[in-house]
Design a protein that fits this description.
mainly alpha, two-stranded antiparallel sheet, 7 helices, nucleus, phosphoprotein, mitochondrion
Length: 147
């Protein structure tokens, strides 16, 4: 604690006592490590993050395979229909439309919109405040993708 040396404003703090009172993640990531860090233990945060991350990764893997199969199958069917003469594609028009879309994308990518920057800032703040929970989620997500 702080002890008064004399009548002035100078104080002596015992840092060893202060360090013992702080949790380890506060020492590493600072005192503002977020609401989840204050409510739950580190093990609970890792478990919650890991389980939700695994579920999200597993679903992402399954839905991704389904979407890839649907898109690939659709392209396959379109190629068969084009080859057999059921449909006729105007490739010059496709090329013209693709070039027009490229120009529009180049114009809009100079600087991201304010809404995107705001959301990115919100995500960064959440990750910084809940670093243990986020780490558990990331690990669980990768395990979910692998399973």
């Amino acid at each position: 604690m702080a002890e008064k040396i004399n009548e002035g404003e100078a104080f002596v703090m015992d840092l060893a006592e202060q360090v013992k009172k702080q949790r380890w993640w506060n020492k590493v990531f600072g005192n503002n490590s977020g609401p989840a860090a204050e409510k739950y233990s580190v093990a609970t945060q890792l478990a919650i993050g890991g389980v939700t991350g695994w579920c999200a990764g597993y679903l992402f893997q399954k839905v991704g395979k389904l979407a890839a199969s649907a898109v690939g199958g659709g392209f396959f069917l379109l190629q068969i229909a084009n080859h057999t003469g059921y449909i006729k594609i105007d490739w010059k028009r496709v090329e013209r439309d693709v070039n027009k879309a490229k120009k529009q994308l180049k114009l809009n990518t100079e600087r991201p919109p304010k809404e995107v920057r705001t959301k990115v800032d919100e995500v960064q703040t959440f990750v910084k405040k809940n670093i243990v929970l986020t780490g558990g989620f990331a690990g669980g997500f990768l395990l979910g993708l692998a399973s």
